[in-house]
Q: What sequence folds into this?
């Protein structure tokens, strides 16, 4: 019988993103709240006698070692060399180079999936350590939910309660390189950092207005300066009812946080005439992952 697993890999948004300084290893010291959303890739992982194969429905997705899912399979199978290989098919829904951790979440799903498929019994800390070697967001993607992340992004403090939030994501036609955005980051240009303490206070009290007031992302100082579309999308999201509009990670995806499902749906209909890719999503609750996607071409 074929041994096969299907694993869901949810995207994330950064509800806050602050940078505390540059580290000696070249990375930046972060303080960021990450939150999983219901936009997911689906990975089918099948046992093979040997080797690693990655395929996808997305022609732009790199094959081989440049693909984080491949790198994850290589990392975990090197630790357990007496097992077989895997074939991984990625049903890709999360846009690439978007600031939504699409590559990192696929890597996390591969680590979890191979651990289960081959009964490797690796513990969560062992998987987290492997994940951190693959990419800064992979440990969060393994843990899931909502977390305050520090360090490179691998020191995680889970946040409760599990709030069910409603978002509209707007992904412009272009993508950005995370490394390039961090390379251009200049602390002197930050005038409006997030109020992380107030955010956490708001989170614990389920105070969505308090949360929305404290949300900021210091990497907007780089990406929004390079691409005027970022601020334009933020303005449109606010005009159409978002409590707050913010870029996720290094961008360029901008998301609006809405007070409820009805307001998010209303904005979704307003955005039908835009030229970006748009997604109507909620917080990921691990049970049902549903989202709506639309790409429209401006006709005038
Ligand atoms: O860890 P990952 O490979 O996902 O990071 C991509 C790039 O983003 C890194 O090469 C680094 O330039 C930058 N980065 C950073 N500080 C972090 C996380 C990422 O400078 N905490």
A:
């Amino acid at each position: 019988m074929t041994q096969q697993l299907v694993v869901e890999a949810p995207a994330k948004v950064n509800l806050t993103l602050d940078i505390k300084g540059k580290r000696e290893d070249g990375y930046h010291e972060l303080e960021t709240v990450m939150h999983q959303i219901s936009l997911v890739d689906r990975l089918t992982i099948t046992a093979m006698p040997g080797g690693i194969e990655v395929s996808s429905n997305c022609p732009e997705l790199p094959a081989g070692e440049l693909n984080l899912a491949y790198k994850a399979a290589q990392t975990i199978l090197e630790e357990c060399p007496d097992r077989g290989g895997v074939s991984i098919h990625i049903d890709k829904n999360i846009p690439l180079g978007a600031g939504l951790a699409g590559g990192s979440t696929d890597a996390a799903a591969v680590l979890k999936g191979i651990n289960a498929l081959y009964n490797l019994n690796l513990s969560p800390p062992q998987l987290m350590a492997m994940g951190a070697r693959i990419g800064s967001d992979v440990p969060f993607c393994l843990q899931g939910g909502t977390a305050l992340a520090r360090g490179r992004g691998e020191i995680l403090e889970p946040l409760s309660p599990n709030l069910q939030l409603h978002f509209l994501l707007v992904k412009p036609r272009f993508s950005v390189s995370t490394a390039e955005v961090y390379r251009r980051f200049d602390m002197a240009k930050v005038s409006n950092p997030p109020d992380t303490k107030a955010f956490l206070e708001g989170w614990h009290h389920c105070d969505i207005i308090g949360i929305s007031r404290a949300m900021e992302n210091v990497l907007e100082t780089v990406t929004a300066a390079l691409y005027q579309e970022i601020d334009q999308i933020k303005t449109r999201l606010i005009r159409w009812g978002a409590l707050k509009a913010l870029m996720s990670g290094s961008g360029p995806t901008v998301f609006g946080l809405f007070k409820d499902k009805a307001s998010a749906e209303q904005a979704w209909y307003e955005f039908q005439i835009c030229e970006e890719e748009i997604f109507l999503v909620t917080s990921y609750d691990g049970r049902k992952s549903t989202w709506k996607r639309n790409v429209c071409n401006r006709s005038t």
About this structure: The mean pLDDT is 94.
